[in-house]
Every structure is written in C-alpha cells, then in structure tokens.
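Quick log. Single chain, no ligands specified.
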Amino acid sequence: GVDSLNVAAASAVAFWQLGKQ
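-> predicted structure:
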C-alpha cells in the first residue's frame, strides 16, 4: 500500500545519501 511505498522511498533516499558521503 501507500505506507510501504513511503517506507521504500525513505529507505532509498537514506541509502542514496549514505552513498554520497
């Protein structure tokens, strides 16, 4: 559902920011 999409999006953003460092 929408909640799982929000969790996936937040995880992707967090992972991307970690990768940038």
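The chain has a mean pLDDT of 96.
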